[in-house]
Amino acid sequence: MPVHTMQPLWGVDFSSAPTKKKPITVARGRRAGDVLRLDGLDALPSLAGFEALLATPGPWFGAFDFPFGLPRGFVDAQALGDSAAAVNAALRARCATRMDFRALVDAWGNTQPAGQRLLHRATDGAMPGIRSSSPLQTRYVPVGFMYFEGFSRLLQAGVHLPRLHAGDPARVAVEGYPGLLAFELIGRRSYKNDDSAERLIARKDIVDALEQGRTRLGLRLKLTHAQREALVDDASGDRLDAALCLLQAGWASAQPEGGLPAHTDPVEGWIATA
């Protein structure tokens, strides 16, 4: 049966330390059948702005680009708990700041064999050909900091997290990962963090594919000309990543339990659409 809903959908490209230059980017849209219309793009230059977003009264359904859990091996070794919420609470009790979290991960990692210091979750490698970064990575791409700052705020806001934590059923969040859709569409070609002609063309190719509905999610992204230019011209790729998350939210919002499998590990979580 076709899906027709005016429920607000969000795709969120997250930053653990947002600024005006590098804000949290939110793509807003709504789905009607197999068409997902982009309503707008917002920039949140602070974590306070992100908290205000989460407090927005429902209904809404969002896909957020940060980990919703930690690797089971690390959780068990640290005796952090048996649910995503318990793990986060225990971690925050031990680590007052993100740098404390880095120190905890480093101290544990230094006791592990080489190659086993940055564990991955089952979901990180669930799609052939691509693997998302470890939630224990706090350098280079600081995914661990994104977990530390992002997931705790979802819990504090009382948002419902399918398969992980019961909250307000009118405000629902799933873990997104734009790299999944980008890989499906353009393989390993780079498309962001560079204003080169090659990456500009890669962004155009992704947007063309999204507008034509050439993903396994079966959704077409409806854009205005100005919106299309905004996605393509943003060399950081943040706006495009938010739009990719929006597509994941559009698909997940129409699935039972956000499309997350029944075997989802309650401390690791699962990436929507993986």
Commentary on this structure:
The chain is α/β, with parallel strands linked by helices and 274 residues long. The protein has one domain (1-274). The chain has nine helices and seven strands. It has helices at residues 47-54, 72-77, 84-94, 98-109, 143-156, 178-186, 197-212, 225-233, 238-252; strands at residues 9-13, 24-32, 35-44, 60-64, 159-160, 168-175, 220-222. The chain has a seven-stranded mixed sheet. A hairpin with a 2-residue loop joins strand 2 and strand 3. The longest helix is centred in the C-terminal third of the chain and has 16 residues, at 197-212. The two termini are 23 Å apart.
What tags apply to this protein structure?
274 residues, alpha/beta, 7 strands, 36% helix
Arithmetic mean of pLDDT: 96
Our estimate of the beta-strand percent is: 15-25%
Strand order of the largest sheet: 5-6-4-1-2-3-7
Radius of gyration using CA atoms only: 18 Å
Number of helices: 9
Q: Which descriptor suits the 3D outline?
A: globular
Number of domains: 1
Tell me the total number of β-strands.
Answer: 7
Query: Largest sheet at a glance?
Result: 7 strands, mixed
Q: Which regions have little confidence, pLDDT < 50, spanning 5+ residues?
A: none
Helix and strand run: EEEHEHHHHEEHHEHH
N- to C-terminal distance: 23 Å
Overall structural class, as computed from helix and strand content, comes to alpha/beta
Share in helix:
25-40%
